Amino acid sequence: MKPSTKWNLHRMSSLTLIFLTLVFVIFFFSNFQLNQIEVQNNLSKPLAKFLLLGFFFNALLHARLELWSIYDDYFKNKIKKIFQISTYLVLIILTVMVLPIIGLSA
Question: What is the pTM of this model?
Fold first, then answer.
């Protein structure tokens, strides 16, 4: 991947993370006085699930881009490949663990 493409992806993921974080801050402040069941009902709406899923995958993409930059700077080819593969495994495990929490799996 070209450095300019990496930079553009990094910038876009940063901007969308800022936007989604602001949405969740507003959501949590507006639901601050509600009880647990009302908050769970609000979180179970399709828009909330979509925003949670978008935030989660955007955060994973952002972390991956940052880690790739570190790997490119500090590691040689063989060790860099090992770290990249281990990063993908960790990201897949995180995805498998988080999807049931959001309520998107069977």
Answer: 0.75
Residue 104's contacts (CB-CB under 8 Å, 6 or more residues apart) are 49, 53
**Residue type for 7, please?**
W
SS3 45: coil
Reading phi first (left if > 0) and then psi (alpha if -120 to 50, else beta), residue 13 is in alpha
pLDDT in tens, 15-66: 999 999 898 888 888 888 888 888 888 888 888 888 888 888 898 888 888 8
- CA 92 and chain centroid, separation: 12
Amino acid at 40: Q
What is the C-alpha to C-alpha distance for residues 31 and 71, in angstroms, rounded to an integer? 41
Domains of the chain are: 3-102 (1.20.1300.10)
